[in-house]
Write a structure and sequence with these properties.
- It holds the Pfam family E1_dh.
- It comes from Paractinoplanes deccanensis.
- This is Pyruvate dehydrogenase E1 component, alpha subunit.
- The protein has one domain: 3-Layer(aba) Sandwich (Rossmann fold).
- Helix content is 43%, strand content 9%.
- It contains 14 helices and seven strands.
- Strands 1-2-3-7-6 form a five-stranded parallel sheet, sandwiched between helices. The chain has a two-stranded antiparallel ribbon with strand order 4-5.
- A hairpin with a 2-residue loop joins strand 4 and strand 5.
Length: 350
């Protein structure tokens, strides 16, 4: 490889700081407060996933793409951002949206079938839930570029899955960001499947992080079930972007432990023993072991975390179960800032 392009290549193996057994593999870890905060986020995210799945079975949510097993990616992505930064999520990133500060009832409104988004994107700087694959990525670059032109220290965290990297929008966004040196961190949650299509049928690249070098974007790989490693890698990426070093592509190696959505039968395309191997790498269990071994986590502390998570679940359950009387006029009120004559005419007939 010529020139100084070597610095764009990701590490040979995903960055890991805490082993599956909870042992520290590196002398430098995120500080204790950050790890405890991350565990609270993980416990809450897991409980939110469980509650949302129950609401689907009760007919209160139309669909729910669970992030069970991927919570470390979700929590870390939200926690490394400053208040003025932006998060651009996908349909599977409800936990990240909630960790960013959005009310979970509002975050699930789209998946219930109500309204257009469910929350004000500007309040917490969280873009709408995006169902089409990778379409939010060029938008994320545009927001980052606009902030840079205005002299704002904004960084954008743009999330997608491994399936999204097969979409044209992903490649266009990387090229766009690299040319403009936009302060964007692209976090790919590689959970091994694009619905039923395994990664090996999606790409022949050495890793998804290697895709950055073709656009002049630095790539990195990280253990997506190790929240400590995620916090370290993503914090570094955000700091680089904020300092003017341009975009970075981070591939988090994780796994979707549950089905693609409640409408999917994952047993048709993967084996139980494959899932079981990843259950042993559960991000919550790993961090709990580490914190207990260091005397930072007691039963009382964990009980308080569980209680806080349960309060979030109860709030979500109560809010989603509340019936909302639809107002047909809303179909016409928010299409254009200035309604067209046709909309006014249609609205009058509603």
């Amino acid at each position: 490889m010529t020139g100084d392009a070597h610095h764009l290549l990701p590490s040979a193996e995903p960055v890991t700081l805490i082993g599956v057994d909870g042992a520290a593999l590196h002398e430098t870890l995120p500080d204790d407060a950050a790890l405890l905060r991350a565990l609270q986020g993980l416990v809450t995210a897991r409980r939110l996933n469980e509650q949302a799945y129950a609401l689907v079975r009760q007919g209160r949510l139309a669909v729910y793409p669970s992030s069970h097993g991927q919570e470390a990616c979700q929590v870390a992505a939200a926690q490394v951002l400053a208040d003025g930064d932006w998060l651009f999520p996908t349909y599977r990133d409800t936990a990240a949206i909630v960790e960013r500060g959005v009310d979970p009832v509002e975050a699930l409104t789209l998946l219930k079938g109500d309204w257009h988004c469910g929350y004000d994107p500007y309040e917490h700087r969280v873009a709408p839930h995006t169902t089409p694959l990778a379409t939010q990525l060029p938008h994320a670059v545009g927001v980052a570029h606009a902030a840079r032109l205005k002299g704002e220290p904004t960084v954008v965290m743009a999330l997608c899955g491994d399936g999204g990297t097969s979409e044209g929008d992903f490649h266009e966004a990387l090229n766009f960001a690299a040319v403009l040196k936009a302060p964007v961190v692209f976090l790919v949650q590689n959970n091994e499947y694009a619905i039923s299509v395994p990664l090996a049928r999606q790409t022949a690249a050495p890793s998804l992080a290697h895709k950055g070098i073709g656009y002049g974007v630095k790539g990195e790989r990280v253990d997506g079930n190790d929240v400590a490693a995620l916090l370290a890698v993503l914090t570094d990426a955000v700091q680089r972007a904020r300092s003017g070093a341009g975009p970075q592509l981070v591939e988090a190696h994780t796994y979707r432990m549950q089905a693609h959505t409640n409408a999917d039968d994952a047993t048709r395309y993967r084996k139980d023993d494959e899932v079981a191997a990843w259950v042993e790498r559960d991000p919550i269990v790993r961090l709990e072991k580490h914190l207990r071994d260091r005397g930072l986590l007691t039963d009382d502390v964990l009980a308080r975390m569980t209680e806080a998570a349960e309060k979030t679940a109860a709030h979500t359950r109560d809010g989603i179960n509340r019936d909302v009387e639809p107002d047909p006029a809303e179909l016409f009120a928010y299409v254009y800032a200035k309604p067209t004559p046709q909309l006014i005419e249609q609205g009058a007939q509603a």
